[in-house]
TrEMBL record:
This is UTP--glucose-1-phosphate uridylyltransferase. The lineage of its organism: Bacteria, Bacillati, Actinomycetota, Actinomycetes, Kitasatosporales. One of its GO terms (molecular function) is UTP:glucose-1-phosphate uridylyltransferase activity. NCBIfam families: galU. The gene is galU. Keywords: Nucleotidyltransferase, Transferase. Gene3D superfamilies: Spore Coat Polysaccharide Biosynthesis Protein SpsA, Chain A. Belongs to the UDPGP type 2 family. Its EC number is 2.7.7.9. InterPro entries: GalU_uridylyltTrfase_bac/arc (IPR005771), NTP_transferase_dom (IPR005835), Nucleotide-diphossugar_trans (IPR029044). One of its GO terms (biological process) is UDP-alpha-D-glucose metabolic process. It catalyses: alpha-D-glucose 1-phosphate + UTP + H(+) = UDP-alpha-D-glucose + diphosphate. Residues 13-279 form the Nucleotidyl transferase domain.
Length: 304
């Protein structure tokens, strides 16, 4: 009997590059990974893993490096803490401790030499194999109420190839991002075809104001392209350069589409945005929100 395979296998694997040094947050990140900085009371990285899981990706590979052991510990059991909380009968906190270890199947690989985002993604090749997979960058926090990854997975299932997340930014800010030249599609206002890509262009040379934000659903052929990609901007192997090659030649790994995101995104790699994320999420929390908002209102009116 012949087995029938669906035309597009369900995507189950998420790759989270987390080897960066976090220099923008020194000295906080001297001995603590930047991914562990709390956003209200949860480390930033937990939001990212939760996002992957809620889009159906519960096999998570983190690309780590030296000094990143706290990431592994966070997603593991902590029996000492659990039994202390159990003894006290503190079930609410016990649930909070157990939550991260119950979320997903976690895997880790070390990047070794930090040779850029493209190189970090290439470290995932042996784990990912020949299936499409997602990449989530830890610095970008997508509000859970504005789902993005599920839409990207849906578009990838429809067209094959790769799908990247895009956001329109102030043209003066485009030099901070990968930038995409795009064409409209029949899939709706939020889906575009990507025709060209350039990493962190000067505003004068940018083909558009569509910035890549840190969510990708990738065709596994990207690995072969990455193996041949020369160091680009900043002397690093750039994921954007590999995707540019996929967009230029569809025969290699299918088309590249973009999902244009209009929801709430916080760049927790930027100190100002990190603070804004905390204030906003704290205001919206049922347990902390009412008191915090009242304090914030009086602080703003009296002190500012
Ligand atoms: C990386 C990518 C860039 C993308 C950005 C999104 O840059 O190289 O294309 O726009 O993430 O956050 P980084 O911010 O790591 O320098």
């Amino acid at each position: 009997m012949t087995e029938s395979h669906p035309p597009h296998p369900r995507i189950t694997k998420a790759v989270i590059p987390a080897a960066g040094l976090g220099t923008r947050f020194l000295p906080a990140t001297k001995a603590t990974p930047k991914e562990m900085l709390p956003v209200v009371d949860k480390p930033a990285i937990q939001y990212v893993v939760e996002e992957a899981v809620s889009a159906g990706l519960d096999d998570v590979l983190m690309i780590t490096g030296r000094n990143k052991r706290p990431l592994e510990d966070h997603f593991d059991r902590n029996y000492e803490l659990e039994s202390a909380l159990l003894k006290k009968g503190d079930e609410a906190r016990l649930a909070k401790v157990q939550e991260p270890s119950d979320l997903a199947t976690m895997h880790y690989v070390r990047q070794g030499d930090p040779k850029g985002l493209g190189h970090a993604v290439l470290c995932a090749a042996p784990h990912v194999g020949h299936e499409p997979f997602a990449v989530l960058l830890g610095d970008d926090l997508i509000d859970p109420r504005d789902p993005l990854l599920a839409r990207m997975v849906e578009i990838q299932a429809r067209h094959g190839g790769s799908v990247i997340a895009l956001m329109e930014v102030d043209p003066q800010q485009i030099h901070l991002y990968g930038c995409a030249a795009v064409e409209a599609t029949a899939d709706g206002d939020d889906v575009v075809k990507v025709t060209d890509l350039v990493e962190k262009p000067d505003p004068a040379d940018a083909p558009s104001n569509y910035a890549i934000i840190g969510r990708y659903v990738l065709d596994p052929n990207v690995f072969d392209v990455l193996r041949k990609t020369e160091p680009g901007r900043g002397g690093e192997i750039q994921l954007t350069d590999a995707l540019q090659q996929l967009a230029a030649d569809e025969k290699v790994g299918g088309p590249v589409h973009g999902v244009v995101f209009k929801g709430r995104r916080y760049d927790t790699g930027d100190r100002g945005d990190y603070l804004r994320a905390i204030v906003r999420l704290a205001c919206e929390r049922e347990d902390l929100g009412p008191d915090f908002q009242a304090w914030l209102r009086s602080y703003v009116t009296e002190e500012m």
